[in-house]
Amino acid sequence: MSRLLIITRSHNPLGGADRIVADLCRELPSRGWQTILGLTRGASFDDPDAYRRVHRNLETIEIDGTHGTRAARLKSLRETIRKTSPNVVLSMRVFDAYQAVAQLKADDLSRAPRLAVGVRAYESAYISDVRRCCGNIDLCVTSGKLIAAACRQIGGMEEQRVESIAGGVHPPREAVSPKDSQSFNDQKPIRLLYAGRLEQQQKRALDLIPFTQALLALGIEFRLDICGAGPEEDRIADQLKLLIDNGQVTMHGWVDQAELYNRFYPNADCFVHFAAWEGVTISPREAMAHGVVPVVSEFTGMHAEGQFLNRINSLCFPVGHPEIAAQRVGELLSTPALLSQLSKSAMETQTGKYSHAGALDLWRDVLNQCLKLPAKVDNFPRIPERLGGRLSQWGVPSSLQLWLRRVLNKPVLHHAPGSEWPTASGLMSEVEQAEIAALAVKLEAETQLEPVA
């Protein structure tokens, strides 16, 4: 049996990418791949114990980053890889793993693992790092066709080494039927669901506030369930306090997949989603499998993937316009037959490689193919050690700081999870960022079926 080591950050185990990781750990062994999960530990943010409380009964190993320096993280990564002896290392948002595998390849290519990287969102820093490190990346698994195209066209990855694999959607627990237009016509209020991280930069969760205001202005009777946690949770609760007090809005906090499937998806009419960009977002697709109609933003990546088709299986609106999202909900109320039509079409979308079993089979196939291709090895770009604190302010060279910290056993304490275990190199230029953003606009325009009115 081949062996896969997945390396992931442990500071936030509640996201969709971590559900995919857990599925891989549980399901790939039956497809010929023993899977071990490497969890990062830090002094301040990354906590494998918290991760294991959310995702139970996985085979895990800890990667010690508590000293806080890049050199210490690389040493710990190399030790973990040697200890587990994987055929493939899959880095899920842990940039240092790229260099750790590259160093092992440089030492002895015949004994080193292949390097696979997961690029799960259209974020410029990730794609820039694919370009910077492509000489050592044996496989790139993206969440979406748009990201895959960028990894080839900008990242320089070969066609056969890039594959888009969405998070697979489990089928409903019980048989479901499309929404019935007559029963919906008699039923008030409309049942709305938001399920996702409550943060603003990507998910635009604060759009929930003007969205509900627009629903009220349109005279729409509704009940909104908000399932999620994140930095904007308290602000949203404060702004929606009156609606929460009168029962129109309920905030449930983070909800696991089982509860979404048992309690929320079967009872929702409409799923709302405001994100600015996504890979192949999973919660709206899980709702679609239950016949729930998505009212979804035109996030970057939507058109290239073709999962959300306006007025065919969903209703779409421009990013940053929650008032138009409210108008779309009004359309469903005023045209009950539209809800039945979209509901039926939505139920038919999550098949083949978009299903749970289909996605896992594709993971197996691409990992097997990765072992058949020649291993890639190249010089790795120099990544400077970034150390904060007074010694850096005084101009003490980082090499001397590292020596002093080792001698005195003084770890670096980080003030953000992104520096404790970085997701990217930090080397992207403004020119690269503009280039990657321009490619997204170009590819989305080429794949858009029709403008969203």
UniProtKB/TrEMBL annotation:
All copies of domain Glycosyl transferase family, residue ranges: 182-346
Keywords recorded for this protein, A-Z: Glycosyltransferase, Transferase
Alphabetical list of Pfam families matching this protein: Glycos_transf_1
GO molecular function: glycosyltransferase activity
Origin: domain of life: Bacteria
InterPro entries recorded: Glyco_trans_1
Protein name per Swiss-Prot or TrEMBL: UDP-D-galactose:(Glucosyl)lipopolysaccharide-1, 6-D-galactosyltransferase
